[in-house]
């Protein structure tokens, strides 16, 4: 009885000592025991603690990461009480929530880098001299050897061209200029990302659709819904001599935004292929065709202005005459609908003058524009096209019948099916892509959710973010990506991982939409 009482007392004291937060476990608190009682006490204490810890660990497995390794004093030869103490210290019950958040914590170095990325000023890669290789970066060899892995200079050029499109989004307004003064005002409002360029011409696109006048009477405050003509982009030319020397030529840029008005959306839906004007010289059995809606927006004149086609051709001819004798290049860049119109503009420019400068198209999230005969015509006329495509962007796979580009090429390499494919090429929805492809993937970004929605996968800022982080198709997102995340968080907050949104709040960053220069003032549409 005396031994049992002593064992009970000592077991209770040992268990209490094991739960004590200071883990002192001084032996002076324990009464002397006989050898037999000590052995029995050790067995009961160890089994009781082991059962307790087993239950506790099962509960914590659903709430926190596995406990860290034991301290050094828990090695072989330590006492049972020390092992109990180290087990509980390893669990660190008072800091379980901190353990759960440990994965989200960053070292000061990573936190400083994130703060720079979330700052409003985007950092750029250094400008290298392209003088002797500018034609290569402009696509003379179809960017062979520069895509995968992505050349640093090409990355910077692609991102820069994308920022010219952002300036077009930012300056968008629905009402077209009705006078020369209005046109000058529109040009002055374009906030170019590169101060070495100057805007020389505002561009407008006009829908061929005419709505009844009573629609305006019913919705007088929603004129943008029925406005046929709207500002869609601009022409700019490089005027800085140092930049001209760095690039190796004077560059003329044509930048075009994506869909922004209701009638532009309506034109996007008119996806039947029609013959390209001026394509009479193409193969009679396989004429070049493009989407009806895109061609209408490009060729239709407004009530008080020329068509987009006339504006582009006229301004390029004027600049060619102004800088006659200099080395020139023409860069046409666009996003979504703007990417489609960029191809049409480049196609027409290529045959507008016999001594036309080299023409390159840099398109972001562009849909299919025409049939294979149109793609062949673009290539034959010397226009170089670099399509930046997000694998998750469905807009790059429309309009027309869905056929994998790789499968299509494999089939065409088989002479037995070429004749059948030629028949398919003449069908109303037989579309084909043009040019060289730079493929990125939103799932590779460590900042975007894996289930990012369609709008995010098609968003221009998301495209620039992905290009900035792209190294190669078999490589992870580059750790030294320099582009600011501020616009991405601001525009695609629901698609950015919670960690980075919370860090943006912790850093007290002002992500006010109105203060983010270059943010589109309208939602980029699917085409």
TrEMBL record:
It holds the Pfam family Lipase_3. Residues 254-401 form the Fungal lipase-type domain. GO terms for cellular component: chloroplast. GO terms for molecular function: phospholipase activity. It is found in: Plastid, Chloroplast. The keyword Transport does not apply. GO terms for biological process: lipid catabolic process. Its main location: plastid. Gene3D superfamilies: alpha/beta hydrolase (3.40.50.1820). Keywords: Chloroplast, Hydrolase, Lipid degradation, Lipid metabolism, Plastid, Transit peptide. Residues 64-84 are annotated as: Disordered. CDD domains: Lipase_3 (cd00519). Belongs to the AB hydrolase superfamily. Lipase family. This is Fungal lipase-type domain-containing protein. It comes from Protea cynaroides.
